[in-house]
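Can anyone check this?
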Amino acid sequence: MSTPELVLPAIETLTDDQRGGRACVWCGSSLDPGISDIDLGARPATRAGCAWFPRACQGCAHLHTSETRDGAPEPRLGLHS
C-alpha cells in the first residue's frame, strides 16, 4: 500500500528530537518510537546534514493525511478522450 507524499515542515525549522524521530514533526510532542508514533519514512540527506527520520503523533498524522487525501484530485477512471 502506498502512502501519499506528505508535505513536512522545513528541516531547518525542526529540533534535533523532531529530526531524529523522538518528537512529532508538526506539534513537537514527545513520542515513544514504535509505540505511540507514526513513522513517516526516512528522508534522504540534505545540504544541511545527514538523513532524517520524521515521525508524527497519531493526531497530527491523521490530520495531515486527511488534508493530503482531501486535496487530491479524483481519479478519472474509465474516461478516455
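Reply from J.R.: I decoded it. Residues 58-71 form the longest helix (14 residues).
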